[in-house]
Fold tRNA-specific 2-thiouridylase MnmA.
Amino acid sequence: MAGLDIGQIFLYFRSNLFWKRLMPLDPALNSLGFAKPPSETRVVVAMSGGVDSSVVAAMLAEEGYDVVGVTLQLYDHGAALAKKGACCAGRDIHDARRVAEEMGFPHYVLDYENTFKEAVIDEFADSYLAGATPVPCIRCNERVKFKDLLETAKDLDADCMATGHYIQRMMGSDGAELHCAADPTKDQSYFLFSTTQEQLDFLRFPLGHHPSKDETRKLAAKYGLSVADKPDSQDICFVPNGNYAAVIEKLRPGAAEPGEIVDIDGNALGTHKGVIHYTIGQRRGLGIGGLSDPLYVVKLDVDAKQVVVGPKELLATRRVPLREINWIGDGGFLSGGEREIAVKVRSTRPPTDAVLRPISDTEAEVELLVAEEGVSPGQACVFYDPKSSRILGGGWIWRGH
């Protein structure tokens, strides 16, 4: 518990006690919630080759479950062998296969390159070119892992699919619910808000209630896994070293067209080598030094090829328009009307108080009680129950303020 503040410790104990209260107590149910022995329960484990999913597979295999490991080849890993710190590269496929051999369960590699390119990479490139700040990891979970891979798991006659995500699945009065991880520093709820109720019924997240990543690594060492000391992934798997612009230029040749850096009144302050090199809220690297007050990127005008800069206060916004709403809270999204919730508009920020106003089944507006800076189209806005650790869904930010 070292390093956690009082609020985080409270969340940890509350979510764990809540988890214990809501999980089935029927001794006839196994640890995954099925009324049959583990040996008769088939579980497909989505294995990235990292320590988290490897521990999930090893833990379930040790408990006697019929484990089948599946790793997705999402892009040409031959080009990625020299890259460290990202998932799903060639080395990671090898590591996943090795864990399966060590623990004695079957392992398959599925070629999802075309699916991944069409469902994730192409949209990432187009969104970035349109001046948005996309979050491809959410789309990957939504369109590949929890859609195509989940269907593959069902085709393999699995009872459920388990992943190494740090998030909790709890049983509530109306069925399965999604809750934040016990360890708030590892919580991945922002990246899983688009999980549907049907998917949640089939998914399991065995690591969600662990108090820390250290516990996961201790389990990896206990099982003697070769990945026990493997570093965590840091980058988006197809974006080497976080260089988004380089990837966009490779995917969309000629995308980096030069233009002007202008102030909010349209006055030219300098030039740039392409809008794709900038993000909303950026301050450093603008190349317009010598001004008395610091300026920030407040807008990207793709059509005019302009980077618009202004004072920091222009970054603050309270009204956030959303579309592609996914609601996994109680009742209907529209029938619930306006409601007080907590939201995250960036993965690294804590939930903040807000008011949710549904417009249609798929559209809404969120009003933040305290203005946030740097809210950008292409990011997600995730909904939380302000009184518990439950995730209620979320949507995609689609217009600037």
Remarks:
- The domain at 316-397 is CATH 2.40.30.10 (Elongation Factor Tu (Ef-tu); domain 3).
- Residues 136-155 form the longest helix (20 residues).
